[in-house]
Amino acid sequence: MVSQNRSDVALLYRRAGFGLRSDELDRLSTGSYEAAVDGLIAGLGGAADPGSAHIPEPTLTLPVRPKKGDLTALKAFNKAITADTQSLQAWWMNKMITTSTPLRERLTLFWHGHFATAVSKVRYPKLMYLQNQLFRTAGSGSFETLMQAVAKDGAMMVWLDTITDKKAHPNENFGREMMELFTLGLGNYTQNDVVAAGEGFTGWTYNTTADRYVFQRAQHDYATKTYLGQTGDWNGNDIVSIAVTNPASPRFVLSKLWSHFAYPVSPAEQVVTDLLDAYGTGMSVSAALKAIFLHPDFRSDTTRSGLVKQPVEYLAGAARTLGLDSTLQPLSSSGTTQGTAGAGTAGGKTKVKPVALSALATTLGQTLFNPPNVGGWGQNTYWLDTVTALRRFEVALILAERGDISPVSSVPSAERLDAAANFLGVDGWGLTTRSALAQVADRPSELVALALSSPEYVIA
Amino acid sequence: MTRDVIFTRRRFLVGAGAATAALATGAVLGHWTDVLSGAHGPSQTASPGSGPLVLVTLYGGNDGLNTVIPYQDPNYLKLRPNLGYQPDQVLPLADGLGFNPQLKGLHALWGAGTLAVLRGVGYPNPVLSHFEGMDIWQTANPTDGSGPGWLGKWLDEYSDDPMRALSVGTTLPPVLRGEKSAATAITSTRLSLPGDATLQGAYAALQAPGSDRVGLAAAVATSGADLLNAKGQLDKLAASATTPSTPAGTASGPATLTEQMAVVAELIKAGAPTQVYQVSLSSFDTHAGEKPNQEKLLADLDSAFSSFFSGLKGVKAAQGVVVMTYSEFGRRPAENASGGTDHGTAAPLFVAGPKVKGGQFYGDEPSLTSLDPNGNLLHNIDFRSVYATVLDKVVGADPEKVLGGSFPTLPFI
Fold first, then answer.
1. Cβ of A270 and B1 within 8 Å?
2. pLDDT at B252 over 80
């Protein structure tokens, strides 16, 4: 039987990171749960990340949108965007697999879903990269600071049309989504507020050559606006400030955080109330995270059965355990990866065709840097359908075949079920899963694949 | 403190508890894997003569004005001096409109009275982005295209069977994804599971319901059980098919629309309980060199429709079939300098089938002179009215429940 502390630490790292290998879990569970929380929180913000330090920044070709009508150039442009996006995906996947600051990567993934911005419309991979770095560096500080930065973020400004927001033709898109999806939630603002927000952001645009936000005075509407009950000559900065300081905002943001790390809740629930003090007027995301992980409910059965792994965390976690990089090549002993997605060269240890982990994520329904729409990815049952079940099984077979499963294959058949649970960081198998796994106990690779498809593993 | 219920009781009972439910009702006491693999058969069928709906997604924004051509409107050739079709090239319909010369099969269906054209279909404040436009069409949410697909919402309300909706292709488009339920994606008339009999047996055992599985754990197993259920039903249909054929069963799915629709036709003939099918055709984004490219695509569409309906002639299960096209937007009335057109707004839709009141138009033809500030057409049929009509008349669902509002239905069925 797994000790309570070991089970708690494993849960913490599944939710606040991408899981732990059994050797890591052995080490961390000798300390207290609280110490494990402190360790994760310490890795936020600007902390060094020795684990992924060797991963080079993504190589981007920075394609420039061709003149209208040049079909050949347009094809090349589209191809370059695809290639750049794949580089970004491989880079981030490798970071998630190798990071020693897993909560920071996990929080970056949370913000990517929260501020769901897709390269399909932005069509400027460098902006996607800059946004991702913003989440990584500013994601755990003050939410207000983050929201102000996101409002001036190039990818976001293209994604939600802020760059086209001009006095003569105000665009309401960013203002509306900022309230509905980023800061307040439906029911906490009116269409008049949407109009006022749109006016507040008039004149905001972005210079993609200098990579910076630009304010065009002549395009700004200086008229007095009434926004969320406050009247003044509001600029976009004021619009953000008024939104995040609205009484509805902390509950909204905290419910999103709790829902991502523990289980889905609405803003009105008691656990959200419990987090308000930690978040405070400073809107501290790291303090809120610490309060979430230390909340008694976080280690409850409700949490333990409360989330399905989204494909990216499923794959990054499995790759960590199986010792694979983002191209499903073995991670070397030093933890360095051999090449990046699409390269398919280097190493040459095996003749196996490189498969990008991010491409597998796509087959499971989640493409990094390309959420389905402004609402981001769904949760739980969103990932449970027949196609995803089939693809998950197919993907699990590939992972188990490519990965190092020696902790399972090297023990006698009779011990393999327990070895697989330990290997994959699962507390144990239920009776139903146990009897299914037993049918392939003499086939270690298929046993691991089946274990990766089990409800026990698929639940986060 | 109560947590949101994250999956429905209905789905839990029918999915995870398929076996237990069957046992509890004292039904045939087969082995539970028989139940999971579809031996219990479809639980409910559509009302006789209605459906299935075959949704044809045209990705990229099909140019409506060169599909249903206003060849007698002098403004048409003014807007399209190079890209326009001459009056003697079009296949005449009525009201000064004619089909693109590639649409000979559709023209014959129009003549036979089984194909209708819905004119100027769109929504207020149209967006010109592919992805957002497609999201809006697929979710029926014109505000921002977020939320579950409109047919996904129908599945959430009504489905208890993974065969209820099928999408031909490797991935499932958002239109068929609900919050709790989703369609099944197939690449041929069969679903294949990896591994040998031993592994497949163990996989089936892994999806069994058990007292050790509650909540989301049960839902994970349900999705696997649903997969096996769909596979079992498809295997059965294939085994009972009079003309055993597996059209275009490659791993990546059928390449052409004709092949995709052949898969659908096979399943309809075999008596599949499916009420909605989804197929698709891409590359309608004709910013440059539009004429040859769009003509090729329209020829594909035309031959797919023709073979589909000729293959289903006299098939009883196909009496209520309705095929409907849609695209994320139409294109700009004025041609651009590259022999193409830019992103537009409202466009015509095709609706075809034996029960369709065809050979006529629904909705007015958008004006070529009163355009929106971007020079695009103004819509006159809200797309949700089209959805409401097919939900009511073809799918047999309450449109208001699915669309979250009331939209007037159209008399095309």
1. yes
2. no
Determine how β-strand B68-69 pairs with β-strand B276-281.
unpaired
Residue B162 to residue A306, Cβ atoms within 8 A: no
pLDDT at A332 over 90: no
Tell me the pLDDT tens digit for each residue of B7-56. Answer: 332 333 333 333 333 323 323 223 333 333 333 333 334 454 588 999 99
Contact between chains at A437 and B220 (C-beta distance less than 8 A): no
Residue B47: the pLDDT is 53
Under DSSP, is residue A459 helix (H, G, I), strand (E, B) or coil? Answer: strand
B218 contacts A121? CB cut-off 8 A: no
Interface membership of A117 toward B (CB under 8 Å): no
Distance, CA of B396 to CA of A128 (rounded, Å): 44
CB A176 within 8 A of CB A194: yes
Query: Are B99 and B89 within 8 A, CB to CB?
Result: no
Tell me which DSSP letter residue A56 carries.
Answer: P
Per-residue pLDDT at A346: 37
Residues 6 or more apart whose Cβ sits within 8 Å of residue A381: A308, B6, B7, B179, B180, B219
Element (H, E) at B325: strand B322-327
Q: If you write DSSP's letter for every residue of A62-125 in order, what string do you get?
A: ---PPPTT-HHHHHHHHHHHHHHHHHHHHHHHHHHHH-S-HHHHHHHHHHHHHT---HHHH--H
* Among A351, A308, A343, CA closest to A326: A343
Please indicate if any CB of chain B lies within 8 Å of the CB of A380: yes
Check A390 against B227: CB less than 8 A apart.
Answer: yes
- Residue written as tokens 């910013």? B287
Residues of B in contact with A431 (CB under 8 A): 210, 212
Residue A188 CA to residue A171 CA, distance in Å, equals 20
Q: Of B52, B56, B14, B38, which is closest to residue B238 (Cα–Cα)?
A: B38
**Which chain B residues are closer than 8 Å to A372 by Cβ?**
135, 174
Q: Report the residue of A363, A370, A373, A398 to disrupt the B interface, i.e. the one with the largest count of B CBs within 10 Å.
A: A373
Q: Which of B4, B7, B136, B206 to mutate to test the interface with A (most CBs of A within 10 A)?
A: B206
Residues A373, B131: C-beta atoms closer than 8 Å: yes
Neighbours of B272 (CB within 10 A): 22
A117 residue type, one letter: T
Per mean pLDDT, which of A6-20, A336-350, B285-299 is the most reliable? A6-20
**Residues of B with Cβ-Cβ distance to A264 under 8 angstroms:** 3-4, 6
Predicted ipTM beyond 0.85:
yes
State the burial class of residue A219 (Cβ atoms within 10 Å of its Cβ: 0-12, 13-18, 19+).
middle
Give the 3-state secondary structure of residue A312: helix
Q: What is the pLDDT of residues A21-72, one digit of tens each?
A: 999 999 999 999 999 999 999 999 888 999 999 999 998 987 888 887 787 8
Mutation site for A-interface testing, chosen from B20, B160, B216 by largest number of A Cβ within 10 Å: B216
Contact status, residue B248 vs residue B265, Cβ threshold 8 Å: no
Query: Residues of A with CB below 8 A from B165's CB?
Result: none
A446, containing H or E segment: helix A444-452
Do the Cβ atoms of A69 and B336 come within 8 Å? yes
Contact map slice: A 290-319 vs B, CB within 8 A = 302, 305-308
Helix (H), strand (E) at residue A24: helix A22-28
pLDDT of residue B130: 84
Q: Give start and end residues of each alpha helix (H) in B357-406.
A: 383-390, 399-403
The whole-number pLDDT of residue A355 equals 81
Residue among B150, B66, B188 nearest B385 (CA) = B150
> What are the DSSP calls for B155-223, one per residue?
HHHH---TTSEEEESSS--GGGB-SS-B-EEESSSS---SS-HHHHHHHHHHT---TT--HHHHHHHHH
CA angle (A276 as vertex; A274, A279 as ends), nearest 5: 125
